[in-house]
Design goal:
alpha+beta; homodimer; 5-stranded antiparallel β-sheet
């Protein structure tokens, strides 16, 4: 199969057009889910689709599907997509690239008169970011039956308390179609990496084989408040001293399970927080991730054992609980192979990798064969107004998506 | 010299009477500096002094002196004292014990017809706690010329904004006598330890040889915010990882300089404090103390070197500055020896120790020979409504003060 290409310049231009809706002064985007701006963004896409002669539909949770019929429309479609909503200080690419990249695939297929048996559908999932309504990947969660429709309807906005269902009605995005997975031949999602690996290694494409196992834990270490002066070190119950024992062991555990381990302490807070008082309580968040299930389980077990040992050694009490967990995903071999073959045909430099972040594809992968395609983003930045991917990489990622989808759609 | 004793029961009873003024529901005291309650407490003491036939006087900053003439009144007096003001949720002993213990010494001397050449004076320093007016040890600071009188006068209360001078006038405590040190033969201060050492070691008396060198430092470690998932550990600038390198070294430095070292991290805060983001900034307070000057300097130098090394190793920027410093004090050998001899005469179990906290005696020691006497307090608690010392220890501390003062007053 010879390698096809999309129209790089058109895709870039559409990304920049979409970025004007909700543009921030710092060059980013604020187009949060189910706002009037979110509707404007979707309307822009629907307008382009209508010009091309493609049909579109909304389902009950507002997921927007744009369809290009195949030669055998009764066959399950090959789908692709991501989301058009952004973080409050988000960028121009996260999510949007996946939707507009998918739409560019349809446009290139039409323009180049490429044949495919299976229909092609591009989807914009509702509320992936979870910044206005506290549920990331909401639209795909409902569609895959991971979350009940009514529960999603009843979520309330942080900003004005509006209900999801009421906002869907207000914007005209509450469709008649069931928010429920239909048979799908294969699903792809094109996305910026949101990490620094491809850029650092000078590679163009990440062939995504799955998503890390990940979980969040909350650790409280309880000490005994005492004055910084009179109390000898040996008579203290100092939670920071417990921290000094366990931190090196937890970073060493990350080393032990190889370069794919992730150990992150994002929150760290001492109470009462007085400079001349040994803290009575230390509150710490611990985020643990690994793509390999056995290594992930080993990392979690080691972390728990080290925390227990350190607190026992110093005679301080602690509580440790898992507050959130997302089991890892291994993408379907067929889809990963299709992406890899597409990249190989195009001759783009690449590596296989796992995603460190969650995506709509995590949900979608539960109901059909799925894979993802990553391109580099500058400094690994995302969820940030400085988020940036080069026009060249943006176009090359679209080429890969086109070729992978056509492989599945034959 | 045979060992004399004070009246244990009377001292305890007076402490309990004083504690009724400003008593809190939780068994503590709220008798903050220059309040009407503070005046009530001082009036109670003045009443007892007047009954005994002792004169009293206020100086310009409200320090209250009670005098028992010696046989040679022209000689410089031996003084003792502490403060009657408390923290908002303070106890019955911190400061009060030093004043009433001193007064009990006068009363015992009179009752037992003990002769002494040098006069004995008991002083209640104004505003030692610094909780209503933001200047701890204010009265003794002015008296020793550490702080200008006008600066103290202009301090404003946290609660109602009242000026120190106006409050002194309102309460009738602005005296005519200069707030300025006069010649003193020797000075003693009786105090609860405010730490756990005597209690833990089962000892009755701490012979205080000085006050620790102490300083406070603020450390900011700057990392690079990034998502907890996609960014490999080796590509992170993680300030918590710098913390994991330096904490064990700083605690080891405390060990290196012996059991008198104190290293305390009271404030610890990660920004932005999101569980799935590597912090961009870690903010830490570091309190360093040691009684020995060379060891103190070594501890500070080591801490700075370890912080520099850890941050350089991980390639993270940092700022480190000293925010407060109180040079240590070595009390006069004559006074320390007098206390030690008194304890030996009485046969009370004891040890020499340094004070971990500041006291009026730190100022007083700059202008005359000074020492302190500590007794155990339960669980090392102070600045706390649960602050407690046993009647037995309270009495025994008073015995030591009586004998030490008489040694100096001969």
């Amino acid at each position: 199969m010879s390698a096809l290409q999309i129209n790089h310049q058109r895709l870039w231009s559409r990304l920049m057009q979409m970025a004007k809706i909700g543009a921030t002064v710092n060059g980013g985007c604020n187009r949060q889910a189910l706002t009037t701006l979110d509707k404007e963004g979707r309307d822009l896409l629907i307008g382009w689709a209508t010009e091309l002669g493609c049909s579109h539909r909304f389902d009950e949770i507002g997921n927007l599907f744009i369809r290009k019929e195949g030669t055998q429309p009764e066959l399950p479609p090959v789908i692709t997509g991501s989301h058009l909503d952004t973080q409050p200080t988000g960028g121009k690419f996260d999510g949007i690239y996946g939707v507009l990249g998918g739409f560019e695939v349809i446009e290139s297929i039409i323009e180049q008169n490429l044949e495919h048996k299976h229909s092609i559908e591009v989807v914009a999932w509702t509320n992936e970011e979870g910044s206005r309504f506290d549920c990331a990947m909401m639209g795909s969660a409902v569609w895959t039956d991971f979350m009940p429709l009514q529960q999603a309807y009843d979520l309330k906005a942080f900003d004005d308390g509006a209900r999801v269902e009421d906002e869907l009605i207000r914007l005209g995005h509450k469709g008649e179609h069931a928010a429920k997975a239909f048979p799908v031949k294969a699903s792809y999602e094109l996305h910026i990496e949101q990490g620094p690996v491809l850029e650092k290694e000078g590679l163009t494409i990440g062939v995504v084989t799955g998503v890390q196992h990940m979980s969040r834990h909350h650790l409280n270490i309880f000490g005994q408040e005492c004055h910084a002066g009179p109390t000898p070190m040996a008579m203290r119950k100092d939670p920071v001293q417990a921290l000094s024992l366990l931190l090196p062991k937890l970073y060493a555990a990350a080393d032990k399970f190889g370069e794919d381990s992730r150990v992150t302490f994002g929150m760290l807070d001492a109470q009462p927080g007085s400079p001349n008082t040994v803290p009575g309580k230390l509150s710490i968040s611990m985020d643990l991730r690994h793509p390999d299930e056995a290594s992930y389980n080993g990392l979690v077990a080691d972390a728990y054992a080290h925390i227990k040992a350190a607190c026992e050694e110093l005679g301080v009490d602690y509580t440790l609980e898992e507050t959130w967990k997302a089991p890892g995903v291994t993408f379907a071999k067929d889809c990963v192979d299709a992406v890899q073959a597409a990249v190989n045909d195009l001759g783009y430099s690449n590596r296989q990798m796992v995603s460190g972040a969650g995506h709509d594809s995590v949900h979608v992968s539960k109901v059909c064969d799925t894979s993802m395609i990553f391109i580099p983003c500058r400094d690994g930045l995302s969820h940030n107004e400085d988020e940036y991917a080069s026009p060249e990489h943006v176009g090359q990622g679209g080429d890969v998506l086109l070729n992978a989808m056509l492989r599945s759609a034959q």
